[in-house]
Specification:
heterotrimer, A alpha+beta (262), B mainly alpha (56), C mainly alpha (414), B: 56 residues, mainly alpha, rod-shaped, C: 414 residues, Formate dehydrogenase/DMSO reductase fold, two-stranded antiparallel ribbon, 16 helices, 2 strands
Chain lengths: 262, 56, 414
């Protein structure tokens, strides 16, 4: 359906890896905000759901040169080539979509029948399958967010850039007679929860938004750019080894620094 | 699958894909319909009633 | 009653022996059914799949059985379109094997999806850009064609054939079979290819991604080609196993050798194309993503370069060389060895194109993902094998599957 009251946006994130302390507040905020289910025993990370996962990277050097970095990884909301993101085009039941209005890759839980082709397609492992039905500790079901649907067993889910917040902000704006929303009206839960202010969220197209400038920081990079996924999450760091771990390079290739912005 | 599904678009991809699909389904459907109708007619005409068991 | 159902002029095992055989295989079948019910009732947590391995043993089994079942469409194509009439003596069996393979594939897919009751969404809400959509449609349509090809065989049962309508129906279906076979070949060329495309289009997965023509990656063509090459090999292999089990010659050598020769040349040309494709991928496609070929074959406990050698040389070049030579085809041991190797080669190809694709770490700070299936996955994968053996047993006993059987095995009474 064609929208008449909005201009094209491209929501994205810039994450400063030099600021991230790996505290995990973003992960917790994300899970609470989006009714992400969890298991009684979460020791096997391969089948537990973390829309936003903080990876620990290591430069592989012995002490005292050893250095680590924490890398928060939400869904990259890849644009690919003209909206041809890796996961969207493969979904056989049109259960995931790339919005040209917001640049957000959505997941329609009631349409997904659990073939998991999108999971195979995503190189970032941002897509999670509900291997179990969600079970909430007694009383916790009352704390679930009414704005986000709870998923059932057998479907795939992933980070939505807190899309319900966008919808609420747009509704409010519409009610107040505005056509557009301000930057602070739509912020993701992880971004707001970060105590180190490492995550910045906004419209990558909009010069008034902080991410517009930040993504053009020299040395800003995106994960696995060489694959052509064209992700919308940018990372900042002053450390070369971190930047180099953002992509794959052949042995004979020199240090390649991905350019920020496009 | 059908033009009334909301995700249906009248673009080249849909026309080629569903064109091929409905072409194949039509052949299969018409082929079987022909076989069944002809068999009913043949049976009513008494064919196959006293045939050699092993003959085809 | 049993003897009244057995085709005239052929000898079958005593009923008790047959019942015992079906009973033993039936136990394995029930084990698989139990695992299948567990998966449906309790969900896919019964498997060892995980978020790194969204596709695993089942998808491999799917791809493998569809490739091996390719004997049906390619034999049909050769007989009805190209006009290799001798193949009429083996085509019934190729159809039966194809029917088993495709019904198994559909069953496995029905277990594999997280929400089986929503399985129809793939048709109703079809995304025409997805290779899996094309697979689902063509697979279902071609399964319908295989059913149509199998029905006349059932109608040829001695008792069913006595009913005039069924006799006429079987007769009329035989008459228009070329049309169905042509439609089946058309559908098969696409769905075999689409299965190759499933991995080939994944530009986020450098191990599987291939460039190609228009929307089709090279794997699209390689999968169709390899299924056409190895499908007939599998038909020949199962025929030889059936001959061994029944202790009878069922198909004449000239028919076997003709199919083996065609299969051999298909395999030889396929493997040349596969080698070129692998070379281009290793030299151009993968390095563009920052991977050297050996990145895909080192630093893990399983996937070494041996798997590439097994697939291409042992499972491709060797059987192709055996099958394209007259001496190779005439030597029974060499012929069977070649079919076994070709089947192994294609199964390894399908394995790496599903599981190794997911095992390879793409993010540099991740490591290889390893996986071993749960007993439920293994049981549900063996289930179609047991089902196939039972259906072959029943079909062989009660239907005239092999037209040359009576001639090759004359019995005194007839």
């Amino acid at each position: 359906m064609k929208s008449t009251n909005t201009q094209t946006k491209k929501y994205g994130m810039v994450i400063d890896l030099d600021k991230c302390t790996g505290c995990g507040a973003c992960m917790v905020a994300c899970m609470a905000e989006n009714n992400v289910p969890f298991k009684e025993n979460e020791s096997n990370k391969q089948d537990s759901i973390t829309w936003l996962r903080v990876y620990k990277m290591d430069n592989g050097k012995p002490y005292p040169e050893n250095d680590i970095c924490y890398l928060p990884r939400p869904c990259m909301h890849c644009e690919g080539h003209a909206g041809h993101s890796p996961c969207v085009s493969v979904c056989p039941a049109t259960a995931t979509d790339y919005s040209t209005e917001t640049g957000i890759v959505s997941q329609i839980y009631t349409r997904c029948f659990g073939c998991r082709y999108c999971m195979a397609a995503c190189p970032y492992h941002v897509r999670y399958f509900n291997w179990w039905d969600p079970v909430w500790p007694e009383g916790m079901e009352k704390m679930l967010s009414p704005n986000v649907s709870v998923r059932t067993r057998g479907v795939v889910e992933k980070c939505s850039f807190c899309f319900h917040r966008y919808q609420l902000a747009m509704e409010k704006a519409h009610y107040e007679g505005r056509e557009e929303i301000e930057e602070e009206e739509y912020q993701t839960a992880c971004c707001q929860a970060c105590p180190a202010d490492a995550i910045t969220f906004g419209d990558l197209y909009n010069p008034k938004h902080k991410v517009f400038e930040l993504k053009q920081t020299p040395g800003a990079f995106r994960l696995l750019e060489r694959l052509g996924t064209n992700p919308k999450v940018f990372y900042l760091t002053s450390r070369d080894w971190v930047r180099k771990q953002g992509d794959n390079y052949l042995k004979n290739e020199g240090q390649v620094i991905a350019k920020g912005g496009h | 699958m059908f033009p009334f599904s909301f995700e249906w678009i009248w673009d080249m991809s849909h026309m080629v894909f569903h064109g091929g699909l409905w072409y194949a389904l039509t052949i299969i459907g018409l082929g079987m319909t022909f076989c069944i109708i002809k068999s009913v007619v043949d049976t009513m005409q008494g064919k196959g009633a006293h045939h050699d068991e092993e003959h085809h | 009653m049993d003897s009244a159902l057995i085709p005239k002029g052929v000898k079958r095992a005593p009923l008790w022996q047959f019942t015992l055989f079906i009973g033993i295989v039936g136990i394995v079948l029930l084990w698989g059914v139990y695992a299948m019910v567990l998966c449906w009732l309790k969900g896919l947590n019964q498997t060892n799949m995980n978020d790194a391995y969204g596709f695993a043993l089942w998808i491999w089994a799917d791809l493998a059985v569809i490739a091996l079942g390719g004997g049906a469409f390619f034999s049909g194509f050769l007989k009805y379109i190209i006009g290799k009439d001798e193949l009429k003596n083996i085509i019934n069996y190729a159809v039966l094997i194809g029917f088993i393979c495709y019904s198994s594939a559909l069953l496995i897919l029905a277990i594999d999806i997280g929400q089986p009751l929503r399985g129809w969404f793939i048709f109703w809400h079809a995304n025409v850009h997805s290779m899996l959509t094309e697979v689902a449609f063509c697979l279902s349509c071609y399964f319908a064609v295989l059913t149509i090809e199998y029905i006349p065989l059932i109608l040829e049962n001695r008792q069913i054939d006595k009913v005039p309508f069924f006799h006429n129906l079987g007769h009329n279906m035989h008459h228009v079979m070329a049309v169905f076979a042509a439609t089946g070949a058309f559908l098969s060329f696409f769905h075999q290819g689409s299965l190759g495309g499933v991995t080939g289009v994944l530009f986020g997965r450098p191990f599987g991604f291939r460039e190609g023509v228009l929307i089709w990656p090279t794997t699209f063509f390689l999968f169709t080609w390899s299924a056409a090459a190895v499908g007939p090999c599998f038909t020949l292999l199962v025929t030889k196993i059936t001959e061994k089990v029944t202790g009878k010659k069922l198909v004449k050598d000239n028919v076997v050798e003709l199919l083996a020769k065609i299969s051999g040349w298909m395999l030889a040309t396929y493997i040349i194309a596969k080698i070129i494709d692998t070379w281009y991928w290793a030299a151009v496609t993968a390095p563009e993503s920052g991977f050297s070929m050996m990145d895909f074959y080192t630093n893990n406990p399983v996937y070494g370069i041996w798997i590439l050698v097994l697939e291409i040389v042992i499972g491709g070049v060797v059987p192709a060389l055996i099958l394209i030579t007259d001496a190779g085809r005439k030597n029974k041991t060499a012929l069977i060895t070649a079919t076994v190797l070709a089947v192994i080669g294609i199964c390894v190809n399908r394995w790496v194109m599903v599981l190794q694709v997911l095992a390879v770490p793409v993010l540099p700070f991740e490591s290889w993902f390893m996986y071993f299936p749960s007993w439920q996955e293994i049981a549900t994968t063996i289930l179609p094998v047991a089902y196939g053996i039972i259906l072959i047993g029943l079909s062989h006993r009660y239907l005239p599957i092999f037209p040359q059987e009576r001639e090759l095995n004359p019995i005194e009474e007839s």
